[in-house]
Amino acid sequence: MDKPLVYFIGIGGIGMSALARWFRANGYDVAGSDLTKSSTTEELAREGIAVAVGAHDEKRITKKIARVIYNQAIPLDNPELRRAKELGLPCSTYPQALGELTKIYRTVAIAGAHGKSTTTSMVALIMQRAKLDPTVIVGTKLKEFGNKNFRRGGSDHLVIEADEWKASFLNYFPFAALVTNIDREHLDFYKNFTAVKRAFVRFLENVHPYGLVVLNKDDKNLFALRKRIKRPLVWYTTRSKEADAIKKNIQIPGEHNLSNATGAYTLCRALGVKKSVILSAISHYTGAWRRSEFRGHFRGADVYDDYGHHPTEIKATLAGFKEKFPQKKLICVFQPHQRERLKILFKDFVSAFDVADELILLEIYSVAGREETDTKTNSEKLAHAVAARRNINIPVCATIKELKNALRLSLRATQAFSRERSVAGSNLTNGAIVIMMGAGNINEWTDKLIISNN
């Protein structure tokens, strides 16, 4: 008997690919399409999932398909989606499909503007170490999961990353929820911060009446909502004795990661996991894909890749690097993600790179289904504004060749200074760190950078 076939439109997305893996692990045939080839689409193909890359084609959609799941960024006039609806096939968005799973599992959902993937990863690994054997769907790849964003568990526990974009998380009905923070993010959808906060309150109303809600007391926006959340709450803070114990065990740098770990600790303790098990899991966690991930070298500099794309994330990540490498020059290479975000948060972006010794910008990454037609807000405008604030030159690179040249100039200056060692205690006397940062395809630039290494 043939297995039911589930077809994913936009299968290369980090969430979509994880859900596709869930369906395949649970006895379904899985196929899908994506506009561009990526490491994720190649991985799925190696796992036996048929992935069509390139322009969407309605001919791929037939009556043999039992169900279609599509990325929320897919426009409604997408030929594959349109054909699926013409044939009367069951169609659902990624969050709608994931929401169905949250009703059949004992679900733990991690939400928040920043830190979701790291906190979800920590919670999942703690629960795994505690032999709770969870199924996991996370927005990053973990080496502990074979460099995948999915783990098939044997229990009724499901750990998910609950994204607020387009109010996705309102489709989820968890037993336990953790919120790391609330920020002015996804304003292209919400329009104002009041609507963002309202959505988080509604998300927490979805938590089981006898379930668990864990919140970050250090986040003023979240703490201010306490009277609007009509249920018992468990708070965590980095000013606690638990955080002091975590600080002695955690390997990843930065106050933001200490907060993420403290949230994971608090949630798992409330779920009954022993303190020793939690601290052991945290001590073994060395990070995830594209989260301050060490990738290699370029002309003697250490090269890291990071997913940060919001001003708050950028500040926190750079501060973490400065804390870990106080003697090294920090060169941030940033690719703005989505023009509307840059436009709305422009002033915040201008000051976000203050900790970096140098900044190099790439052109804006255009997001399919989300990009605006405004061309006045661009990387050049951001470069001019940061240059005026810092009184430094900010190159804008359109090609990998231009980026290599800009980095060579920067690193040559660093090396010359290192040889002279003329300024005692300078942070330029001990090498350099290159942080490739952004939520677009900057990781592909990183690949080319470290491969050439010249």
Keywords:
alpha/beta, 3 domains, UDP-N-acetylmuramoyl-L-alanine:D-glutamate ligase, seven-stranded mixed beta sheet, 18 strands, 454 residues, Protein-Tyrosine Phosphatase, Chain A, Rossmann fold, six-stranded mixed beta sheet, globular
Q: Describe it for me?
A:
The chain is globular, with a radius of gyration of 22 Å. The strands form three sheets. A seven-stranded mixed sheet has the order 8-7-9-6-10-11-12, with helices on both faces. With 454 residues, it is α/β, with parallel strands linked by helices. Helix 5 packs across helix 10 (255-270), helix 10 packs antiparallel against helix 11 and helix 14 packs across helix 15. The longest helix has 21 residues, at 400-420. The chain folds into three domains: 5-93, NAD(P)-binding Rossmann-like Domain (Rossmann fold), CATH 3.40.50.720; 105-284, UDP-N-acetylmuramoyl-L-alanine:D-glutamate ligase, CATH 3.40.1190; 293-452, Alpha-Beta Complex (Protein-Tyrosine Phosphatase, Chain A). It has 17 helices and 18 strands.
What secondary-structure arrangement, pairings included, does this model have?
Layout: E1 5-9, H1 14-25, E2 29-34, H2 39-46, E3 50-53, E4 65-70, H3 79-86, E5 91-93, H4 94-104, E6 106-111, H5 116-129, E7 135-142, E8 148-151, E9 157-161, E10 176-179, H6 187-190, H7 193-205, E11 212-216, H8 220-223, E12 234-236, H9 241-247, H10 255-270, H11 275-284, E13 293-298, E14 301-306, H12 311-324, E15 329-334, H13 339-344, H14 346-352, E16 358-362, H15 379-390, E17 396-397, H16 400-420, E18 432-437, H17 442-452
Parallel strand pairs: 1-2, 1-4, 2-3, 4-5, 6-9, 6-10, 7-9, 10-11, 11-12, 14-18, 15-16, 15-18, 16-17
Antiparallel strand pairs: 7-8, 13-14
Helix pairs in contact: 5-10, 5-11, 9-10, 10-11, 12-14, 14-15
